[in-house]
Amino acid sequence: MSVRAGREFLAIPGPTNVPDEVLRAMHRPAVDIYAGPLLALTDGLLKDIARLFRTDGHSYIYIANGHGAWEASLTNVLSKGDRILVLESGRFAIGWGESARRMGVEVEILKGDMRRAVRPAEVEARLKADKANGGNTIKAILVAQIDTASGVVNDIEAIGQAIRAAGHEALLMVDAVASLGCVPFEMDKWGVDVAMSGSQKGMMTPPGLGFVVANDRAREVHRKAGLRTPYWDWTDREGSAHYQKYAGTPPEHLLFALRQALDMVFEEGLENVWRRHMLLAEAVRRAVGVWAEGQAIGFNIIEPNERSNSVTCVLMNGRDPETLRAYCNEKCGVVLGHGIGELTGKAFRIAHMGHVNAPMILGTLGVIETALGALEIPHARGGAQAAIDWLSAEVKP
Ligand SMILES: *Cc1c(COP(=O)(O)O)cnc(C)c1O
Fold this sequence. Notes:
- By secondary structure, the chain is of the alpha/beta class.
- It has 2 domains: about 10-15 and about 270-395, Aspartate Aminotransferase, domain 1, CATH 3.90.1150; about 30-265, Type I PLP-dependent aspartate aminotransferase-like (Major domain) (Aspartate Aminotransferase, domain 2, 3-Layer(aba) Sandwich).
- The protein contains 14 helices and 14 strands.
- The protein has helices spanning about 20-25, 35-55, 65-75, 90-100, 120-130, 155-165, 185-190, 215-220, 235, 250-270, 270-290, 320-330, 360-375, 385-395, and strands spanning about 10, 60-65, 85, 105-110, 140-145, 145, 150-155, 170-175, 195-200, 210-215, 295-300, 310-315, 335-340, 345-350.
- Strand 13 and strand 14 (about 345-350) form a beta hairpin.
- The longest helix is centred in the last third of the chain and has 22 residues, at about 270-290.
- The radius of gyration is 21 Å and the shape is globular.
- The relative contact order is 0.16.
């Protein structure tokens, strides 16, 4: 017996729920790519992407997923043999660094671990040592704002301050794939030089678009970058002809979808979107906090203020998370994320990013609690109730 009829709820950290309005926006004929409304659509999207990242810098749209946007950002500012520093706090900055390494960049990893955020003081100390060692040999610093594997949120503002406190000139490059449109991102204020993201997480659009933004400092470095290739190259994409902006045919239907998604974000208000994410994320944390009293499950991220507002990674101490995921999916129609990297087989993840509301999150929490009961996994009861109590207290008439 199951209770899974109706629409399946996808609670994996990407791709996320695509709103019906966004799906509908794609259901239309193709249009001319050399003239007509598509040209203004592109201009508006490029402006609004910069607006999302809160920068006066340049923005670029690629037909690519996050891995493509990683490559776009690296090839435009680095040369073979350059040294970069990757700040570890999960899987994703490491993966970004790995693509740099395969392009001939020398990659140093500032050791961190799966259970905590990057420590800005450690970044400052490493950069001061680099300066003492004959100058600015590190060309760029790579960090993920939210690491989707660990569920951590890094303090990008503090990392920017650490770089300046060290008097270091390395470019600060931030992966905002799991954070853009979920939590505050202040590119210019925080001193971020290059940032990247994708369409399929907080931006609630199908996978296929990669975004990169760059400030003038990064664009200056770009002029001498040796890894530039025709498809990713910023200079080509800054050309005046419309087809140059995509290095070929524009991904029209994804652009229609993105336009609709951005309209929805700006209509709700970007700050309100961030606040909605915070409220729903905290509801998840309240529930997990109660369940954790049973000792069988717990938060992967140890420090409460380092837990992200877009995804929560839950550790299972010795129990099989796949059994829980299978129950939620097969019996109740909720698809949870699985643990990745060193957390494979040890954790599950609850995504709360993008097009999410109270029924989706409370429903998901209720289903997880149902599974914990049905599978006789020790937990304190009342997790879903704690989430409800939190929202009742915070969301007033
Ligand atoms: C999902 C994700 C990526 C990779 O994106 P793809 O579209 O799967 O290539 C990179 N960084 C972070 C933080 C992510 O969450």
